[in-house]
Amino acid sequence: MKKSLVIFSLFIAQIVSSQDYSQYVNPFIGTGGHGHTFPGAIVPFGMVQLSPDTRIDGSWDGCSGYHYSDSVIYGFSHTHLNGTGVSDYGDIMLMPTMGNPSLNNKDYSSKFSHKNEKATAGFYSVKLDKNNIDVRLTTTKRVGYHEYTFNSAGNANIILDLNHRDKLLEGEVRVIDDKTIEVFRRSEAWATNQYIYARIEFSKPMKISKKDVNGKQESNLYAGTRLALAFSTSVKKGEKINVKVSISPTGYEGAAKNMLEEGKSNDFATIQKQAEAEWNKELSKIEVQSADKDKLSVFYTALYHVFTQPNINMDVDGKYRGRDNKFYTAKGFDYYSVFSLWDTFRGAHPLMTLIDRKRTADFINTFIKQYEQGGKLPVWELASNETECMIGYHSVSVIADAMAKGIQGFDYEKAFEASKNSAMLDIFGLNAYKQNNYISIDDEHESVSKTVEYAYDDWCIAQMAKILGKKEDYQYFMKRSQNWKNLYNPNNGFMQPRKNGNWYEPFDPREVNNNYTEGNSWHYSYSVQQDIPGLIAAHGGKEKFEKFIDAIFSASDKTTGREQVDITGLMGQYAQGNEPSHHIAYLYNFVDKPQKTDEKIRYILDNFYKNTPDGLIGNEDCGQMSAWYVLSSMGIYSVTPGKPEWETTTPYFDEIKIHLEDGTTKTITKSTDKAELQKLGFENVKPAKDFSYTQLTTSPVIAADRIFDFSTKVVITPLDPKDKVYYMTMDAGDANVRKTFTAYKGPFVINKTTQVHAYSERKGEKSSVTAAQFNRRPNHWDITVNATPTAQYTAGGKLALIDGINGSENWRKGEWQGYQGQTFEAIIDLQSPQQFTHLSSTYLQDSRAWILMPSKVEYYASMNGKDFILLKTVDNTVDPKDEKVQTKEFGTEILPTEARYIKVKAYHFGKLPEWHQGAGGESYIFVDEISVK
User: Fold this and answer.
1) How many CB atoms lie within 10 A of CB 13?
2) Which residues contact 457 (CB under 8 A, 6 or more apart)?
3) By the 8 A CB rule, do 38 and 66 touch?
4) Where do the DSSP E strands lie in 468-509?
C-alpha cells in the first residue's frame, strides 16, 4: 500500500511539473522603473545569469546591468544581480560584431529594439541592429550557451572585454587551442575581491585579431589590469557561431569540470528545453488558477524572481571558495552565494521554508561554513565577500525560522553557536547596545533601525535557545529583545532617536535621516515583529494602536529630510517599495480588524504589481518584493519569522495548490478557514517548553541645555511613570570624590560642565544607566556663518562650530555641519580685541559619500568686522581619491595678532570629477570645530 502511494505521488508530481508554467513568466517585469531586474537566461538558483548589459556606468537604476529604457547593448555577461541597490557583477562579457574589430565599447556596442527582443524562462534573444546579428542565449546552472547568427557575410568578431563594468584587479586569458580559451577575472566593486574563472569554447576556429593588454603578452597568454581581445573568423551569410562558457569560483580546473558535466551538448534547442523543464519543476510547486493572464504572469514571474537567487556557488564536484579565500568541498549540502538577508528574511526565506525545506537547510549550512571560515554569519554576502551592507544579523532569523518549523539537515548546536557569536560582537553599535540596552546617536549612525532590528534578531536567538533547552541564553536574549522599548517615546508613539541622554529634537517622523536605515520613523515604529502585543500595550491598547496603523496610511505621502530613492510605493507614509513596511498592513489582524488587512493587501496586489517592465514598485531585492506578492496572494505572510505560523488575509486567487516536498498537496480557496491558513505547512510542529524571563526596565531620559552660558536646569524623566529614578552628577571638582546614586526628587540646576548619570528601577529591576554631558561654553563668542548647511547636517546650530566638542570620523552621528556646493565662510566675534597666535578649523573627507576636503582654507582678522586682512592660507594635502574616512585640522601658527573678528573661508572642492561615481554632482564640505588660541 505504501509503495503504491509513493508511486502515485511521483506520478502526480510528474504530471504537475510537466505542465507549462514557464509560459507565464515575463522576465521583463522589473527591468524598468526601479525594479533593477534583468531579462537574461537563467535556471533556478543557477551560477550563470547570462544577460545583456545596457548600463556600464554603475548608476542606481542600472545595478543589474540592464534597464528597459535603454537602446544600446554593450555585450552579454554571465553574472548579474537581481534587484539590488548597489552595482556589481557583469563578469565575462562577450559581444559579437562584424567588420574591422574595435575594443572600444562605444564602437562594439550596438543599438537594439524591444520589438526584436524576447525573453522567457531560461531563454533570451535579441537582434543587434548595428551589424544585423541575431543573438540567442540559454543556460545550465554553470554553463552559458550563446548562438550568434551573422546575417551578412564577412569578418565576424567576438569581443572579450575583461574591463567591462567593474574594476579589474587581475585579468588573464589563456589560449588552449583555436577553439578554446580560459579566462580569469579578479575584480573589485561591491564585492571587493571577487574571483571568477571561465572556459570558453567556440564552435569554429577563431584567431586573435586585436588586443588591448597592459601586462604580460605571450603567444598563448595575456595578463594585466587592462585586458580585451577580439577573436575573428570569416562567415557566410546566415552562418551561426555557437559559444559555450562555463564559469567557476575556484579555478580553471573547476571551469573545465563544469564544462565537461554541463557543456557536453552542442544542441542549443535541447539546452533551452532543459532550462524550461527546470523552471517548470520549480514553478509547479504552486499552482494558481485565474482567467486573467496578466495575474498569472505577475504571479509566476514573482515566483521566478524568488528562485533567481541565492546562487549555487560551487563546482560540480562540490569545491567552493570559502569566506577566507581558501578552498573547501561541500559534503551533504550545496553551497550558495548572494544573501540579501536584510530584505529576504522577511518573506523570501519564510516562503522557502514552506516549499523548499531541503534548500533552506543548504542555505543554513552555507551560513555555518561562512561563520567557521569568515568569523561570523553572513549579513550581505556576495561572491564569498562580506559587503557589510545593510544592518542587523538576520541570518539568525532564517535559522530560527527553520528550527521553529522543524526543518532538519543542519547542526542546530553549531547554528546557535554562530548566531550567538554574531550577537556578542562589538561592531556596528553592538557594544553600546549590549551595555546600554539601546543605541544612541552618540554611539552609531542609524541608531533607531539598528536597535529595533537587533532586538528582533535577539528574539530569534532566544527561540533557538528555547528549542535547545538553553534556559539562561533564552532569558538573556529575551531581555535584550525588549530593547526597542528604550527608543519608544510614550509621548508620541514613535521610535525616536536619543542623543546625549535625551530624545533627539527637532523630531519629525517623516524625516529621512541618518538615524534610520533607508527610511524614517514611520517605517520603523512598527518594527517590533517579535512582540506586537507589547507594542500594542505601549500604545495603550488595541483601539489606540489601530488608530496608529490608520495614521501611517492616512498621513501625507511626502517625506522630509534626505531624498531616499528606495522609498517608493507610498500609501501615506507606508512604503511598499522598501522592506521595513512589508508587514505593517497585517498588523490590523492583531487589533481584530482583519477586514482592514484585506483592504490594504488587496489594494497593493492590484496596484503595485503589474505585467509590465515597470511592474515592480521598488527594487526586487533578491526576491523579497516578489515573495511578498506570492505569499500575500496565497493569503499568508510571515510577520514574525521564527514562529511556525502565518498572518492571514483573503487569498487573491480562486484556487491555489501547494505541492510540498513530502508529496502532499495543500489547497487554498477564498473560503479556506483562517485558522487553517495560519498553520499552513506546519500543522504538526510542537512548541518548545517555555521559560520565564525578566521584563526590561527602560532607561530614563535626561534633559538640559547641552551647551549653556551660566547655568541650566536638569530634568530626569522615567519612560514609565511608575519607575523610581536615581541619579549622580560629576564635574571637574569631583575627580577624587567617591560619588553614589541618590533618589531623584525633582529638577536641579548645574553651573559648570557636568556629567549626569541616571537609572530607573521597577520591582528591584534596574535599567541601564543613561549618561549625558552638559557643557558650559568655553567662551562667549558669537559666530556668523555666510553659507547654508544642508538641513540634515546642522549639528544643532552655528554654535556647534565653537563649542569645544570635536566630531568623530562617523559623520552620520550628526556632529558635523555639511555644506553642499558652497564655499564655507564664518566670522567669529570674540566680543573684544584679543591676542592670538594659532588658528585652526577641522574638516572631514569621505570621498564615497561626496564629502571632500576644501581645496584651501584662508584665515583673516579684523577689528571692525568689515575690513579683513588675510593672515594665512592653508592648502589641502589630502588626495580626493583617498576613500579612507578621515579628519584633518587645517591649523596654522601666526605672529602674535590682536583682533576682535576672525574670518575662516574654506573653498569648496567643486563638482565631483569624472573618476568619481557621482561625477558632475556637487561635493560637500564638512566642518566642525574652529579654534582660536
Assistant:
1) 16
2) 392, 393, 394, 396, 397, 422, 423
3) yes
4) 498-499, 502-503
Q: Which three cell numbers stand for residue 779?
A: 567662551
For Cα atoms 469, 472, 474, give the angle at the middle one, nearest 5 degrees: 65
Whether 32 contacts 613, CB under 8 Å:
yes
Q: How far apart are CA 198 and CA 78, in angstroms?
A: 10
Q: What is the pLDDT of residue 737?
A: 86
Nearest to 610 by CA among 174, 295, 842, 158: 295
Q: How far apart are the first and last CA of the chain?
A: 94
Tell me the per-residue pLDDT of 689-732, one tens digit each, with 9 for 90 and over.
999 999 999 999 999 999 999 999 999 999 999 999 999 999 98
Query: Residue 494: is it exposed, middle or buried by C-beta count within 10 angstroms (0-12/13-18/19+)?
Result: buried
* Dist CA 49 CA 32 (whole Å): 18
Q: In the structure grid, which three cell numbers stand for residue 563, read together?
A: 531624498
Q: What is the pLDDT of residue 10?
A: 44
CA distances from 122 to 77, 275, 304, 806, 897 (A): 15, 5, 10, 57, 76
pLDDT tens for residues 137-177? 999 999 999 999 999 999 999 999 999 999 999 999 999 99
Q: What is the DSSP letter of 441?
A: T
Spell out the residues 6+ positions from residue 417 whose beta carbon is closer than 8 angstroms to its own: none
Burial degree of 724 (CB within 10 A; 0-12, 13-18, 19+):
middle
Q: What is the 3-state secondary structure (H, E, C) of 234-273?
A: EECCCEEEEEEEEEECCCHHHHHHHHHHHCCCCCHHHHHH
Give the pLDDT band of residue 915 (cuts 50, 70, 90).
confident
Q: Would you call 357 exposed, middle or buried from its count of C-beta atoms within 10 A (0-12, 13-18, 19+)?
A: buried
775 pLDDT exceeds 60? yes
Residue 880 host element (H or E): none
Residue 4 clears pLDDT 60, i.e. is over it: no
Q: Are strands 167-177 and 180-188 parallel, antiparallel or unpaired?
A: antiparallel
Give dist(CA 930, CA 535) in Å, integer.
45
Using a cut of 0.85, tell me whether the model's pTM lies above it. Answer: yes
Split at pLDDT 50, 70, 90, the class of 9 is very low
Contact indicator for 794, 505 with CB cutoff of 8 Å? no
Read off the pLDDT of residues 219-240 as tens digits, 9 standing for 90 and up.
899 999 999 999 999 999 999 9
Residue 119 near residue 37 (C-beta atoms within 8 A) = no
Cell 529583545 belongs to: 481
**Of 17, 45, 49, the residue nearest 277 (C-alpha):** 17
* Residue 230 CB contacts under 8 Å (≥ 6 apart), including other chains: 101, 102, 103, 157, 158, 159, 160, 208, 209, 210, 211
Confidence at residue 18, expressed as pLDDT on a 0 to 100 scale: 62
Residue with grid cell 541601564, as numbered in its chain: 768
Residue 11: predicted pLDDT: 45
Contact assessment for residue 52 and residue 92, using Cβ atoms and an 8 Å cutoff: no
Give the residue from 177, 180, 212 showing the smallest Cα distance to 101.
212
CB 604 within 8 A of CB 625: no
DSSP β-ladder status, 770-776 and 869-875: unpaired
Which cell numbers hold the place of 884?
Answer: 579612507
Calpha distance 16→287 (Å, rounded): 9
Determine the 3-state secondary structure of 734 from DSSP.
helix
Do the Cβ atoms of 888 and 810 come closer than 8 Å?
no
The beta strands (E) that lie in 660-708 are given as 665-669, 701-703, 707-708
